Amino acid sequence: MIVAIGRFVLREACLQARRWQDENGPMRAVHVNLSALELRQTDLIDTVRGAIELAGIQPSDLVLEITESQLLEDAEHSVAALHALRELGVRLALDDFGTGYSSLSYLHSLPLDILKIAKPFVDRVAETSQDSFVRMMIDLAKALELEVIAEGIETAEQVEALRVLQSSFGQGFFLARPQAAQSSQDAAPTS
């Protein structure tokens, strides 16, 4: 059922992005998670293209998020699918970075736009001893010319530490609780 649910979520997210644009003007993007099974579907590109066209949004208005562990399940096919999505104009985010086992050389070859630092690292970011590891992730993302989103921000101390480390964006309960579509916003800037 995950493929059917994923298609529904993708279509609805794109339609909601259009509504937000009509009501509020330009926005950064709407993010949608892809499951490993969805990533392996032979009609994935057509499905994504169809959702974008139905909604009347630009491909760059959509960010598809995948996790490191998903890439390892069928690396060759996953990378090919990511390149095809990039050619379509969709932006791509590597979700939960730091929790998988991808090598840095492999990471360098992916057509990514955004690196999302996993919550377990953000949980400890305000501790001095943990700053260097998160700093390394942020520096790596910047070296690869990727945006950075820190996930799971729950305290003011985490926001301040991430500002010092120059994380571009953040998401988490401290910044905003989940909201109905009528009041939702993009990831909150941490700087």
Describe the structure.
The protein has helices at 2-24, 36-39, 44-55, 68-73, 75-88, 104-108, 119-123, 128-143, 156-164; strands at residues 30-33, 62-67, 91-97, 114-117, 147-150, 169-170, 188-189. It is of the alpha/beta class and 191 residues long. It folds into 2 domains: 1-92, EAL domain (TIM Barrel, Alpha-Beta Barrel); 113-191, no CATH class. It has a 7-stranded mixed β-sheet. Strand 3, helix 6 and strand 4 form a beta-alpha-beta unit. Helix 1 runs parallel beside helix 3 (44-55) and helix 3 packs parallel to helix 5. The model has no long low-confidence stretch (mean pLDDT 88).
* Average pLDDT over all residues: 88
Based on CA atoms alone, the radius of gyration comes out at 17 Å
Strand count: 7
CATH topology of the largest domain: TIM Barrel
